[in-house]
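Case study.
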Amino acid sequence: MSQTDNNRHRWCVIMCGGVGSRFWPYSRVDRPKQFIDFLGTGRSLVQMTYDRLTPMVDPSHIVVVTNARYADTIREQLPDVPAGNILLEPARRSTAPCIAWAAWHIAAADPEASIIVTPADHLVTREREFEKAVLDGFDFVGRNDVLLTMAVTPTRPETAYGYIQIGKPLGENFYKVKTFTQKPKKEMAEVFVSTGEFFWNSGIFLWKASAIIDALAAYAPEVNTPFADNRDVFGTAAEAGCIARIFPACPAISIDNVVEKATNACVETVAYGWNDLETWSSLYDISPKTRDGNVTQNCQVLSYNSSGNIFCISGDKLVAVDGLNDYIIADAGDVLLICPKIHEQDIRHIVNDAKVAYGDKFQ
Amino acid sequence: MSQTDNNRHRWCVIMCGGVGSRFWPYSRVDRPKQFIDFLGTGRSLVQMTYDRLTPMVDPSHIVVVTNARYADTIREQLPDVPAGNILLEPARRSTAPCIAWAAWHIAAADPEASIIVTPADHLVTREREFEKAVLDGFDFVGRNDVLLTMAVTPTRPETAYGYIQIGKPLGENFYKVKTFTQKPKKEMAEVFVSTGEFFWNSGIFLWKASAIIDALAAYAPEVNTPFADNRDVFGTAAEAGCIARIFPACPAISIDNVVEKATNACVETVAYGWNDLETWSSLYDISPKTRDGNVTQNCQVLSYNSSGNIFCISGDKLVAVDGLNDYIIADAGDVLLICPKIHEQDIRHIVNDAKVAYGDKFQ
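After joint prediction, the assembly is written out as follows.
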């Protein structure tokens, strides 16, 4: 198959439905993380994801799956994505139903489609290496009926990620999957990293539409069957009505559960500077630091005896801070959060307490 | 002299020219502390001072001395003070020139005037006791040619205040002054408090206009002479022009220097819940606390593992704080300050650094 043919069948699915509260108060139910210009670049995370893919995938082949409440935001932030490519989930149902719908939708338009599936809110720092990895991946899945996961060379014994152990080599940077392991303990993670056989599951996948539909049919029929039973509606005016009926009834299953069961799971090992931006600490880690070792977003900071902090401030504000180390200081206009980075897992409790005390006002 | 006569000759001078930076960023050059509703009562400190005095002094006898830049603010905040009673200093020259001008101005209208001189920005918590002390003080200075300082029973060995040692009793709560001591060291302050002979200099004075003019003539002639040489202008259309000429040439001398030299210095000992509100800590100390031991001004606080903080926030904001103890958290809209209370003396350095870095923008 020629490069041009490959190009013609390349598609991208951006999963954009998250409502994560870990970046509260900066991320909010009405403005989740993926829509925020977190790095002060002038582009939101979903826009950066889009920008990263368009060199390989034509905007007419980019499909965005998001929650119905974010339809206007998507149209505003990604004006070049055709309206018919914006799939509005009527309910939140984890990643397998999302990916199933997108696969059936794309297959209706292009039965030979190869798809890269990516979260909207991850960060890639080395875009040229990313581009090469994606092109190699498209080539690999175009030639093989496999489920390909991009797996990142680990740089530390992270316990918050899933790990993939590589098996038989299938070419440069391509391997059969040997094992999947979710969030190992610290000691285990250290062993994983030391062996050189384990890689982080980045949550970025490549496969032919037909391959993922086959896998869903085999390993998650309760998700796939409603779509298969309505295969004629995709790409027609009847699609939205059908989805409104079948989607909320889908079980909330992660695509990881499908891939982990598949006998044709493969990995492409990559090292393009990936960060899932799941936490304030991860944003701190990847951001440039001031001389004092602080990260400042959208603000000027006068810092005294203060290091290791991340300041994420809405509006052009001066922050003067003395004697504060390793804190998150996030000011979203109506909410100011001051929290040690090591307590960031508790932010969701704070968000919940705010809901109990003030209803939806600060959610 | 009858009570009615006394009442007729009672005057008040509110010294309102401060531009203190210790409450930065909440207090600013354009909105110094005395004009802020610091306690969330709906009245600024100068309004609270005015409200405290009007039961004893008619608004037509209240004179406000302030900097020319605050003329509009005074007119807005104290609309019942006659325009002719607002004395606008063309330059900042400490308290002796301010008090000299006010005394000459009042003496021109009422040669028998007795005057209470008070800072605009102190706090009194027990107003009934304050009222009794002021009435007793007016009575005392009406009958005696003395310089009377209100001296507060100390409640702790404070090192930031001046102390007055009392001498010969002159009636209930009235004494000759034995010594003045500026800001003693801790050990000395502890001795002072333990003896029961030492009181805090509150900076509130009472005297006849003639008595303070005599004292200025004797102990600060370089301040008094320019006013004495122009005694005919006060209360006339020529006053402002004369002041514009003579006031900037006055040396910046504190009234303390005059009172300390005077042989007729007396004190009235008082215990009406006085706080000079010079620092964030003093505001913390006098404010009601949450169950967690925090002080919250103009904001809702969700507090976790946090105590001893003072939150002073502009706008109706939610603050969520974890693991922060004994800090000042002040948000003035364009500036956020986070600083340990024990470092509050360094805030003026921060203000200066902000000036160096950003000019007048955040001053």
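Observations recorded in class. The radius of gyration of chain B is 21 Å. Residues 127-143 of chain B form the longest helix (17 residues). We will return to this complex in the next lecture.
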